[in-house]
Amino acid sequence: MAGRPQARPRRADAGDAATVPGVVALLGPTGAGKSALAQQAAERARRGGVAVEIVAVDAFTVYRDMDVGTAKPDAAARQRVPHHVIDVLPPHQDCTAQWFQAVARAAVADVRRRGAVPLLVGGSGLYWRAVVDPLEFPPTDAAVRRALEARYRDHPPAAHAALARADPAAAERIDPGNLRRSVRALEVVALTGGPFSAWRTAWDTHESVFDHLSVVGLHTDPGELAGHIAARAAAMVDAGLLAEARALATRPHGLSGTARQAIGYAEALAALAGRRPYQGLVEAIAARTRRFAARQRRWFAADPRVRWHEAQPARGALLAALTAAATSQEPTLQSRPPSSS
User: Could you tell me the fold of the domain covering 20-133+206-328?
Assistant: First the structure.
């Protein structure tokens, strides 16, 4: 079929694989403590003589000035360990997986050319696959996307209902409240005349573009994770999420459709517009984050490359992977299967 996606296996390794550092990744659900663990492991590795730089794999830390709701590493942490793909896009521009793929891969290549180990850290399954796997993406058209956003902005479930009629398989994989993803799928249907779900064909395999890739998964008990998420949501609101969301939304260019869908910001903007009571803001953010974390666990559990560890063993596994990657060796990592709960 015309426009049908094709996987094109290719290697993103620079130069001779024997002389180029490998790539390490730390994955896990939101609130599991990935950023802190990555920072600790990177600092320890650097003290031991292994150059490590962090590449953030996140849909929203790419945005400048979206700080309170994205849990970005602070300036001190970023000074101790170089970070990449953070604060690189103004919030009025959309962030697409295709754009992220190009920017993040360029960052990884630059880190490796300088002889350092890139440590990919994040919880965005889509962006993770975009960076490490040989994927292509459907066409885009900003005008079509804006028209769809305008039509469904105040009624996200209506966009999902339209998608369910046009492409039931795609609708099954998308949260009815996620306007951004529903609009993207409808955009592809409009542009190609075919189902958005057809583009998932290339996702059925997990063939990395990197010759040396070690993936550590951070497993957290679901009950413990829910507590972390609740505390994180409350901390966001206490730190001024509402004020930040208001300031961003009232700028001349406002917020892009992507930025508006960020967890925390979407709920804050709804409260500011009178569509949601302020009293339930923290729980609304926490509830959406819990749903997102459950999807993250399912997404990463399907990736056979991930070696899962509880927090304490994960520290040792990550450090071992970073040390081995410095010479492009494959570390021997034992793991436990991820919980399905």
Answer: Rossmann fold (3.40.50)
